[in-house]
Amino acid sequence: MAETLTLSKILYVRENEKKIAQKDFHQSMNDFEKVATDFYTLLKKKENAEASYEQFLQSSVPINQLKQLTSYIEILNNKIVELQEKVNSARHVMEMKQSKLSEAHIEVKKFEKLIENRINWEKDHQSRMEKAFMDEISINQFSSHETR
């Protein structure tokens, strides 16, 4: 029974570690979603700017406007490259946190199974002891009955 209590205490610690890992994972997932949303918004802006550029080429627009739009697209490209690195970094962090969460979940399940097996073993052991005791009582009653 003492071993089961010890395993229960370890399980409690592992469950707390799992909760922390879960919170960390959800935080990293939120961070990733924010960066990815910013990235998507920037890509949409670039797409719209390029569509405007194509329309300007089809119509007669002053060269200054084309230069401004070209420099704007170039600025967007630079921001996209920077944000792409942030997205990859956030994805990597999120995957690491997910891996830690999976490991914590496995540890919790492992200790739950150990406790379950230990309880089953204790029940079986108790049952065997009771059967052995009952057998001993029966043998004693039989032998005392025979001697009379």
Question: How would you characterize the overall build of this protein?
Answer:
- By secondary structure, the protein is an all-alpha fold.
- It is about 95% helix and about 0% strand.
- The chain has a single domain (about 1-145), classed as Helix Hairpins (Orthogonal Bundle).
- Helix 1 runs antiparallel to helix 2 (about 65-145).
Number of helices: 2
Q: Could you list the spans in which at least 5 consecutive residues all have pLDDT below 50?
A: none
Q: What is the name of the CATH class?
A: Mainly Alpha
Mean pLDDT: 93
As a percent range, the share of helical residues equals: over 70%
How many beta-strand segments?
A: 0
Radius of gyration, rounded? 35 Å
Q: Count the domains.
A: 1
- H-E string: HH
The major sheet is characterized as:
none
- CATH fold call: Helix Hairpins
Distance between the termini: 43 Å
Strand content: under 5%
Q: What's the architecture in CATH terms?
A: Orthogonal Bundle
Structural class: mainly alpha
Shape: rod-shaped
